[in-house]
Every structure is written in structure tokens, then in C-alpha cells.
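Record type: monomer structure entry
Structure origin: computed from sequence
Chain ID: A
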Amino acid sequence: MKTIKLKNKFMVVVFTLLKEAKLKNQASRGRNKFLKRLEEKNKEFNDELTEIRKDYFQVDEEGNLKTENDRFIFKDEVSDEAKTEMNDRLKALEDEEFEVSFAEHSTKYESLFSALSHLDEELSGDKAVAYDELMDAYEANNTDEENNGTR
């Protein structure tokens, strides 16, 4: 089954790229379905991020992270080693891959990626990085399918 695998750290820039891309018809519908899946994956990512942070930062009576001047407040007992550990855990979470399956919307997703491969926009900065990561993930899946004889 075809899937796209991307690292969590690229989720937001891929979302922004797709949201702003000028697409028509079936490709636009594929984009909307893909964006919906990215929103679900981003919620999962943010939930995991919050759980890690709760190990190091103060929480209120309702279990929400406390802030002061728009910054989280460390628990009193958090050492420098614990801060390093937290940063390592956060980086590991950012580097984790998430997966979007083509099972439900394969025709729409294929139209989306076909349109993206012929995108006639100049891209730079984060959009160029997002495009490269997204297309690499799509092409990697095609290569995997060819190697497994499932294409």
C-alpha cells in the first residue's frame, strides 16, 4: 500500500506549501484530503510534545502548562542534565516519521502528486524545502513499490 512518510519537523512547512499551492480539480481535492490528514497528525504530534513538556515544566490544577511572559516555567527540581534530556526527547520527536496512507483517497492523492510534480511556481526558502521533502517521500514510496513488485 502506498504511503508518504515524513519527519514531524516538516509537517507545518508541508502544510503551508500545500495550502498555498495553486491546484485545480482532482488535485485540489487531493490536497484538501491530505491537509486534513496532516491536521490529524499535527494534533498527535502536539499532544506528544505536551506530554514530554509536562515532565519538565510546571502545570496548573487543570493539567495545562503554566506560562510566564509567553514561556513555560521549569519545575524547581529540573537540573541542567534534565534540560538536556528534554531537548534530546524533543529533537527525537521532531525527527520521528509520520505516515499518510493512500488507502482511502489514492486517486485524489495521485492527482495531487502529479500536479505537484508539474508545479509551475518558483519556490524558495521553507516552501522549497517542504516541496523537496514531500516529493522525495513520494518518490521513495514509488521506488519501494517498484522494488517490491507491487506497482
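Annotation 1: The chain has one domain: 3-142.
Annotation 2: The helical segments are 11-20, 25-54, 80-95, 106-117, 125-148.
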